[in-house]
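Two entries, shown back to back:
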Amino acid sequence: MRLIHLENEDWQVGILPDTGGSVAYGRVRSTKGWVDLLRPTPVEDYHRSGACASFLMMPWANRIKEGLYHAMDRTYSLRTVQDDGTARHGDVRQRSWQVIEATTASCVLSFSSRDHADLNFPFAFAATQSFGLEGSAFWMEASIQNTDQVPYPAGFGFHPYFVRSSPPPEVMLPCEAMFPLERALPIGPPTKIPEDVDFRTSRPLSDAHLDHLFTQRRSHTPAHILFPAHQQQLTLDADPVFAHSLLYTPTGEPFFALEPQTNANDGFRLFAQGIEGTGVFVLQPSAIQRGRFVLRCSNFSS
């Protein structure tokens, strides 16, 4: 299992090209040495993207209800997972990616759907992932290019997991609305955020189970996560293409996820229905869509 280790004065990051370019660990330097802020992956689980610190979702983010992908007035049936009957998190995170370039502080990976006859998507695309360390910033960037002869809707997102210790992390999320969900799938257009899950001002994570899709993100205002247990803060900035943020806090687990997504959960169905704000983009032949996500670390005193 290949591992690319990136390191500078502020970060240690591991990248797994054979597991979809997933992130194995993301550590920052503190006054007490290196500390994991991204959920670390056990070495024996390096082959499982779902156990990793972060992975790429592409050519769609999150779920597609019943695997029914709506594209240009047609519906295609994708393979689904057994637990909830959806097509989930795209089809690149368990694939092997080519390493185009690797240094001590950055790397570039590439992927072509044409190399995989069993790809769970009806159209051809090429993709790249880039990772880099620049001072206190760890950035990850993804791009998708339509290598087919027809246009089609697509999307992508990053799925980072963060450590959840005591006292609990505090989250600030600059989104103005949220999608009402049932079993992680939208049942209507965006609505007002209820007060008990309004993270527009920083608040500690409770023990409650959250699986909420926030939208209408203020693109020039970064999100923040405070880790009082480690006296560390992460500033999370994302390109405007990431219009949605999924906050997932499973009860009783030592981790949570805060995921930048271009498309809403089951966004292709919503897009086909004419619902506004799905974040779904239509890629014309040869066109490219890309987006960068940046984690910037800093110390603070509680």
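entry 2 starts here
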Amino acid sequence: MSFTQMMSVRTQDPDRLRELLAGWHQDQHGTAPGYEGARLLADREQPDRWLIEVDFTSREEAERNNDRQETEDWASRLREVVEGDPGYHDYDLIYTTS
């Protein structure tokens, strides 16, 4: 079953956030366990609020990915870009029209 992790963050530097996510994808797509891709969403109502959506093949693969040093290094760089701690939310895919 597909699994999605959402990270809610605040930043005044969306370009750096976008670069950080693009760098992860370039370096880790095809390497990180179960990683399928990510999206960066801008909040229209709160310009400094962003949502990072990361898709994995399963929750188990996402957990394996979270245990990697590369992931911890990326999370450390993320904390340098955002204000406060990211909010994490986990979702299982139940239904899709595509």
